[in-house]
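help with this.
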Amino acid sequence: MDGKAIDKRAKKNSWFLGTSSFLNDIGGEMIVPILPFYIVALGGGGIALGLVAGLREGLSSIFKILGGWFSDRTGERKTFVFLGYFFSFIAKFFIGLAASWQQLLAFVSFERFGKFRDAPRDAVISYSTKITGKNFGIVQMMDVLGGILGMILLLFLLNKFSLDFKNLIFIAAGISAFSLIPLFFVKESKFKAARKNLAYGIKHLNPKLKYFVFVSSFFAFANFGLYMFLLLAAQELTKNFTASILLYILFNATYAIFLVPFGILSDKIGRKKIIFLGYFLFMLVAIGFIYAEKLIYFIMLFAVYGLVYATSHASQRALVADLSGKMKGTAFGFFYTATGLAGIPGGIIAGILWNVNPKLMFFYLAVLGFVSIILLCFVKEK
C-alpha cells in the first residue's frame, strides 16, 4: 500500500473512531457537568471533588498502559478499542446507582477503566502516517462536538422534564451504547507484534519521549480536571445552574473549533510551539481566575481555557506518536498512565487549597503553569 493510500485509510479510520468518540461523549458529557453538583448532593466537599477529578483520570490510566502494551504484544488494536467502549457504557449505569459520594468515586473510577481503549486507538490513528496532528485533531474534535451535543441535551431534559441526576445518567448510558457501531468499519494496518514484556517496552522507549512524558505529566499535575472547580466557581458567581453549563459549552465549543486548525499547524511548524502556547494560556487562565469577579471575565476565561485544550491535547499526542517508534501502543499507554496518575495528587492538593481559599488554588496553579513552560523548553521534537 503506497503512502497516499495509507494516509487515506488513516483519515477514514480517524472519522470512524471520531464518530465512536462523538456518540460516547454525548452520554459522557451529559454526566460530567452535573458531577460536581451530584458530589455535593451526596455530601461531598472540596476534597471529595478533587479526589473525583483526579481519580477520574488517574486510576483508569493504569489500564491505558496495559491496553497499549497488550495491543503491541498481540498485534490487535481494534479489539481493545471495542472492549473499552463497551466497558465504558456499561459502567455509566452504575454511576446512576451511587448512594454516597464514596460510592460515586468508585463507580466513576470503574467507568474510566474503559479508557484502556485510548492507547490502541491512538496507535491505529498514528500507524504509518505523517499527518498525525490533523488526524488526532479530527478525533478530538468529534469527541468534543459529542460533548457539546450532550450538554445541550442535558439542558433540554432538565428544563423540559425536570429529571433528577440519576435518570439523566441512565439516559446518558443508553446513548453511549451506540458508540460501538462505527468501530465495525475501522480497518487497522497490519504490523508485527512486539513480543516484549511491559518493563522491557517502557525501558527501551526513546529517552526524548520519556522526558516529554515527564513534562506533560507535570502539566497534568496542574491541569488535573480543573473544569470541575471552574463550574463551581461559575455557579457561585451566577447562582444559576444553566448559566454554568452554558459556560462549559463555550469552553467545549472553543476547544472543538480550534482543534483541527492547531493540529494542522503543528504538522507544519512543529508540535512544541503549539504546546508551548497551550501551557502559556493555562498560566494566564489561572491568573485570570484570581481576579475575575464579573460574568464577562468568566466568559472570556472559559473561552481561553478551551484554547488551552485545543493547543495542548492533540499536539501532545502527536508528539508522542513522533517519538514512539514501533512500540506505539506502549508509548501512548505510558503517556496516558503517567499524565493520569499525576492528576490524582494534583486534584487532591487543589481540593485542599480550594477549601482554604479558591484564589490561593488558582495562584498555585499559575505557578505550576510557569514551571511547565520552563520544563518544556528542554523538550526535543526530533
